[in-house]
Specification:
This protein is of the alpha/beta class. It has 15 helices and 16 strands. The chain has an eight-stranded mixed beta sheet with strand order 5-6-2-1-7-8-9-10, sandwiched between helices. Strands 13-12-11-14-15-16 form a six-stranded parallel beta sheet, with helices on both faces. The protein is globular and about 65 Å long.
Length: about 400
């Protein structure tokens, strides 16, 4: 079985989706499935320094890179060379697995697959959630009418990562069968004395609990709401230090820093920038509370990464694994409002016992449900079922 995954970009600037695609393909290849990736050399406002139009090993997986048209057009990311390559090579694959909507590479791949009668699966990445559909609403309406709805209706299946995402697909009027398979999380590399090392690295008192935000600094993720909520707690003399780990557009990061200064939180907040590897694990394993108050997340891979190390989480209902978290008593799910978020953080700041209880439940949930090995097995079964039809 040979599977081609098509995604607009594997750039770190796109956050979770890039990390997911690497782990997913690695897991499939561990199960003897010949999985490859076709993508562009997009890397934000820059380009990845990679060979083009040939199969290369990149981050331990086989990838075909094609030139991105410059300048970048957000997630649309046009490439003049990927479609001709797909026309010539698509029949070398049994199934295509397309990631993202409203983007040139997966959209064109779906159309070419239909012409050549190659089945394909679409992963929507939460882009059919009510909040996501309000963003660039008119453009998405036109794109949907001309192309995307047909792509979705003619797919062999829609890959959803949560029941909420499957419900969004149905609400959008798509009748194609859905397969609900969550994303996975890697087992962490243990960081001895993580808490002590983290406090030393950021100059934080050993008595001060650390609140962690680990995601892109983007208005969708609502780090501004988190800062406002902590401003309220600072006025009530709560002890905490917030670490914002992630990159973002310079103007938005400047807005966050101005908000921090206006609330008098400069000494209580650190901007860590983009982190990976051992630096990322140090943050996850050394912090006390993880918060992601996002408007919309189709899965929330950073949330699962926090849970697998036993870090208690606070999320909003827009994070589509919020139902799993609530049912597993693995964290707190609160509305995306200043008071509600502040109260939830205060509750965990006051109770180390509750933090430990939620953290242990989260670790159990992540290990049982978000295993890449189990996910690869389920996907392999889904691929086989599609081919048998």
């Amino acid at each position: 079985m040979k599977i081609l995954h098509v995604i607009p970009s594997v750039s770190p600037t796109l956050g979770g989706p890039s990390e997911v695609i690497f782990n997913l393909v690695k897991a499939l290849r561990d199960h003897k499935i010949e999985a490859e990736i076709a993508t562009t050399n997009h890397n934000g406002f820059e380009l990845l320094d990679v060979p083009l139009n040939q199969r290369v090993e990149y981050n331990q997986v086989p990838i075909w890179f094609f030139s991105r048209f410059s300048p970048p057009m957000k997630e649309f990311i046009f490439s003049a060379t990927i479609a001709p390559w797909l026309w010539q090579n698509i029949r070398n694959y049994n199934i295509l697995h397309l990631h993202y909507l409203f983007s040139y590479a997966p959209t064109s791949a779906g159309a070419i697959a239909r012409y050549h009668k190659v089945p394909y699966i679409v992963r929507t990445l939460g882009q059919l959630s009510p909040w996501a559909l309000t963003q660039s609403h008119l453009k998405k309406q036109i794109y949907t009418f001309l192309i995307e709805r047909h792509n979705l209706n003619r797919a062999a299946a829609i890959h959803c990562t949560s029941m909420s995402e499957a419900e969004d697909v149905r609400n959008f009027g798509i009748k194609t069968p859905t397969i609900t398979i969550p994303l996975g999380v890697n087992q962490p590399v243990k960081c001895p004395d993580a808490k002590q090392r983290l406090h030393q690295a950021y100059g934080i008192s050993s008595e001060t609990p650390v609140v962690l935000f680990l995601s892109r600094l983007h208005y969708k993720k609502r780090p501004d709401l988190l800062i406002q909520s902590l401003g309220q707690l600072a006025a009530q003399n709560y002890n905490f230090h917030l670490i914002l780990a992630g990159s973002g557009e310079a103007d938005y990061v400047e807005e966050l820093k101005n908000l921090m200064m206006s609330l008098g939180l400069t000494s209580r907040i650190s901007f860590a920038g983009f982190v990976k590897g051992i630096d990322k694990q140090l943050l996850l394993q050394g912090s006390d509370i993880f918060v992601l108050p996002s408007f919309s997340e189709n899965f929330g891979i950073a949330v699962a990464e926090a849970m697998v190390v036993g870090l208690p989480v606070i999320v909003t209902p827009g994070v589509q694994i919020a139902q799993d978290i609530a049912e597993g008593k693995a964290g707190l799910v609160v509305e995306g409002e200043v008071d509600a978020l502040a109260n939830a953080i205060a509750q965990l700041l006051r109770s180390p016992k509750l933090r430990q209880e939620l953290g242990e439940n989260g670790k159990s949930l992540a290990n049982s449900r978000y295993s890449w090995n189990a996910i690869a097995q389920k996907l392999a079964c889904a691929y086989t079922g599609i081919l048998n039809k």
